[in-house]
């Protein structure tokens, strides 16, 4: 992992929230993809974007469109494992499971459910409302995950690349970059 200066820990959750939302909104990555891309790049885990998207591509819309576990929560769970596993090694598996359980509980407390079908029930009829709702949920899942990560492993804050997290893009540039990644 590459090490980056993070400055204060207190602004990292907000930066992770905004970055994940930006990737969802303007790059049009799905919820799980946006969260996992954010963590991979911000913590310098160095997985190629194609691998990250491939890992997360079956998680959106409640595990492959089934409406079950929210893709943003699933992506955040994988992100916790990626970052902690890369930093702490295989012995961290039990700690990662505990962190993911905490993520599940906090998310459920904040939103009342972790099921995509339940979370989107009131906005499914309106594509714009649905999109905006899921963008917010995506950002919230990333924010919760990084809070848990930094509470349990505060030393990881030094690895966060704030320059990457602060950089936002508009819809056109985001979609062009995504299209370039998707070209053969």
UniProtKB/TrEMBL annotation:
SUPFAM superfamilies (UniProt xref): Multiheme cytochromes
Keyword Transmembrane attributed: yes
InterPro entries membership: CGCAxxGCC_motif (IPR010181), Multihaem_cyt_sf (IPR036280)
Residues spanning the membrane: 63-87
Entry keyword set: Membrane, Transmembrane, Transmembrane helix
A Pfam family this chain is assigned to: C_GCAxxG_C_C
Keyword Glycoprotein: no
Protein name, entry field: C_GCAxxG_C_C family probable redox protein
């Amino acid at each position: 992992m590459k090490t980056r200066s993070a400055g204060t820990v207190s602004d990292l959750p907000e930066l992770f929230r905004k970055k994940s939302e930006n990737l969802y909104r303007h790059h049009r990555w799905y919820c799980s993809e946006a969260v996992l891309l954010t963590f991979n790049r911000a913590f310098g885990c160095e997985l190629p974007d194609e691998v990250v998207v491939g890992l997360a591509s079956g998680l959106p819309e409640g595990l492959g469109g089934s409406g079950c576990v929210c893709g943003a929560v699933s992506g955040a769970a994988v992100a916790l494992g990626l970052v902690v596993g890369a930093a702490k090694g295989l012995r961290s598996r039990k700690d990662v499971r505990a962190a993911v359980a905490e993520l599940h509980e906090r998310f459920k407390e904040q939103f009342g459910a972790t099921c995509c079908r339940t979370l989107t029930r009131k906005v499914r009829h309106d594509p714009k409302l649905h999109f905006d709702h899921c963008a917010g949920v995506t950002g919230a899942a990333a924010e919760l995950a990084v809070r848990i990560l930094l509470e349990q492993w505060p030393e990881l804050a030094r690895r966060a690349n704030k320059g990457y997290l602060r950089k936002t893009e508009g819809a056109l540039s985001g979609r062009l970059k995504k299209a370039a990644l998707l070209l053969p």
